[in-house]
């Protein structure tokens, strides 16, 4: 079954965010983003954030972006900004979110690949799950909403704000701002269900 254009666009945004949060973009991805067309969006904030990201990518040095990613998200010892969503939710609850997430993914027929280095609560993995729900399994919007609201929406503000407020980010400020705008649109759309 083919996807409607708006659903394909959503899946593509999740795929892009997954890729950008999983590892720093290489020269090819930066060039592609830098040459990307304007976003035809009803939301002016999303369109502006897309333009900012495209401009940042067009002007980015791949080595500098790699160093930024490693400094901000990998670090030596303890990363200044964590991309693991459990770190944001554990601060406010006594539950074990990674175990709960693994259980939910197993119930949905999904599991981490044996060769995957990152745990399932990495923001890149969660974005990839949403992409898979939309474009792969084509799960209904209510199931997508439940997963989004449980695992992504609660950490959007603290994660994106940490990226935006960091002195160690430049390119990734644009990534974080676009992610925040996209996730805000997703939340608004899910609230209309």
Structural summary, described in words:
By secondary structure, this protein is an all-alpha fold. 67% of the residues lie in helices and 0% in strands. The protein has 9 helices and no strands. Helix 8 runs antiparallel to helix 9. The radius of gyration is 16 Å and the shape is globular. The two termini are 22 Å apart. The mean pLDDT is 91.
What are the secondary-structure elements, in order, as H or E? HHHHHHHHH
Biggest beta-sheet profile: none
Estimate what percentage of residues fall within beta strands: under 5%
**pLDDT below 50 for ≥5 consecutive residues: which ranges?**
none
Q: Compute the gyration radius: what is it?
A: 16 Å
Count all strands and give the number: 0
**Alpha-carbon distance between the two ends:** 22 Å
Overall geometry comes to globular
Mean pLDDT: 91
* Number of helical elements: 9
Structural class computed from helices and strand pairing = mainly alpha
Bin the helical content: 55-70%
Supply the key terms:
mainly alpha, 193 residues, 0% strand, single chain, 9 helices, 67% helix
């Amino acid at each position: 079954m083919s996807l409607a254009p708006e659903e394909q666009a959503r899946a593509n945004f999740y795929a892009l965010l997954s890729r950008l949060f999983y590892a720093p973009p290489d020269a090819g991805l930066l060039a592609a983003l830098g040459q990307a067309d304007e976003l035809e969006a009803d939301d002016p904030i999303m369109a502006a954030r897309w333009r900012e990201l495209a401009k940042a990518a067009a002007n980015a040095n791949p080595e500098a972006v790699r160093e930024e990613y490693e400094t901000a998200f990998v670090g030596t010892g303890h990363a200044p900004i964590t991309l693991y969503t459990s770190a944001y939710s554990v601060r406010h609850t006594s539950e074990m979110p990674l175990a709960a997430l693994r259980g939910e993914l197993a119930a949905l027929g999904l599991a981490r690949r044996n060769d995957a280095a990152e745990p399932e609560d990495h923001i890149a993995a969660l974005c990839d799950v949403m992409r898979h729900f939309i474009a792969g399994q084509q799960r209904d919007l209510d199931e997508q909403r439940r997963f989004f609201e449980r695992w992504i929406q609660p950490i959007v503000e603290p994660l994106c704000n940490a990226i935006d407020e960091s002195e160690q980010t430049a390119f990734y400020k644009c990534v974080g701002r676009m992610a925040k705008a996209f996730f805000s649109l997703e939340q608004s759309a899910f609230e209309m269900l």
